[in-house]
Amino acid sequence: MNEQNNNGKPIDENVPERKENINEEKMKIENNGQARNNTDEERKDNGAFGQKSDFVREDELPGSAKLIGEEYIKEELRKPLGVFSYFFIPILLMLPVVNIIFVFTWVFGRYVNENLKRIGIAALIWYILILLTLIFFGESLFMLFGNWIDTIAHV
After folding, report:
1. Cα atoms found within 13 Å of the Cα of residue 113, Cβ hemisphere only
2. Same domain, 97 and 61
């Protein structure tokens, strides 16, 4: 008697039967010297075997920066600014529209150096103080010089 599998093909008794559910199959993977079980479902999340990843692996990080994920990013964002940064930041803040864009990027950006964020906050406070001063005294100056110009025009 010839048995058939789900696809209608005869089953050869000499060939070992394959497991239908691959997710139940486990394989050992060496990870940092520790063996761990990994199911096929977890492998789907990590990508295919041999697939190159764009992410930096922990063993590829430079020197003492053996930190994972956001901790590495936070460490990079705490580095001090160079001399040229302090030289060019005031020049950037003198440009009319560019300064506002950079200040808002530095203040509200997610991955911004902490020193740039503090410089941006200080610049934003200065911009708010200047704007309030111009609004408050600008009206007074406009009324003062507005009457003065009318007086000169009648002379």
Report:
1. 10
2. no
At residue 77, φ and ψ (nearest 5 deg) are -80, -10
Q: Where are the beta strands (DSSP E) in the chain?
A: 26-31, 34-39
Backbone Cα Rg of the chain: 34
What φ, ψ does residue 35 adopt, rounded to 5°? -80, 140
* Residue located via tokens 């708010």: 128
Distance, in Å, from the CA atom of 68 to the CA atom of 106, rounded to the nearest integer, reads: 24
Query: Same structural domain for residues 135 and 90?
Result: yes
What is the spatial distance between Cα 68 and Cα 75, in angstroms, rounded to a whole number?
10
Is there a single domain that holds both residue 147 and residue 85?
A: yes
Q: Is the predicted pLDDT of residue 144 greater than 80, yes or no?
A: no
Question: Taking the model in full, what pTM does it have?
Answer: 0.49
Joined together, the tokens standing for residue 44 give 């789907």
- Residue 27 lies in domain: 22-76
Mean pLDDT calculated for residue range 92-121: 94
Helices 98-108 and 83-94: crossing angle in degrees, nearest 10, is: 130
Q: Which amino acid is at 56?
A: V
Q: Which residues contact 26 (CB under 8 A, 6 or more apart)?
A: 37, 38, 39
